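Session log. Operator J.P. requested a structure for one protein chain; no other inputs attached. Running the standard single-chain path with token output.
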Amino acid sequence: MSVALVTGAAGGLGAAIAARLVEEHAVLLTDIDSGRLAETAAKLAADGARIAHAVCDVSDHSSVRAAFSLAEEQLGEVTALANVAGVGGVLTSFTELTVRQWDRTFAINTRGTFLTCQELLRRRAGRPGAIVNIASIGARLGMETIADYGASKAAVLEMTHAVARAGAPTGLRANAVMPGLIWTDMWRSATERMVANDPAAAGATPEQLFAGFVDRMVPMKRPQTPADIAETVGFLLSDKAANITGQTIAVDGGAVMS
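Structure written below.
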């Protein structure tokens, strides 16, 4: 059985992707939230999956190397990677965006993706494998209030192209997935701040605000679910996608069309 490593796997989208991947892989779950990570790993293991887990800060090179080494010790050599760990959702006007917020967003979303991709390519040493990097439709929307998040995810898209070219001669593939509007902790936090700070949102619930975004932005008029994204990731990491690399797939109900 092949081995997949999933970052940001303690909950939400990462946990859903891990749950999908255990159908075809042994999986190492990583996250910085040790409590939720252990709970997610225990649940998947109870269902019969071959699971291990490790606390990992993707922005730290030594932490990333340690996670890959643990996977090799407990499960086998990692051949598939799903980069899900990310931060964002802090709606900030461009002129108020701080250097600290910018740097933190890039440290997790961009440097973290770089470090894990690089580690897999080095360890595979010219052998086949597969990577899926989770980006966001925010990479293409040009929204002023998420300049740090959008830019960090746009960088992930171009990095995916570079990884795909580096791995292509030996069959290591890399693709990116752009999720649309999913009711996650990130969206919950963003809409709660809107309710608290935006007079135009007064009296609305976070759920109502989110539904309004879906109605305005998504032609298919429904939010996306973690399962929607997980199915696409599972396909791209499988042999069924053996001739797909360097591509970006939006799973967003038509919010971004290209």
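Operator note: The radius of gyration is 18 Å.
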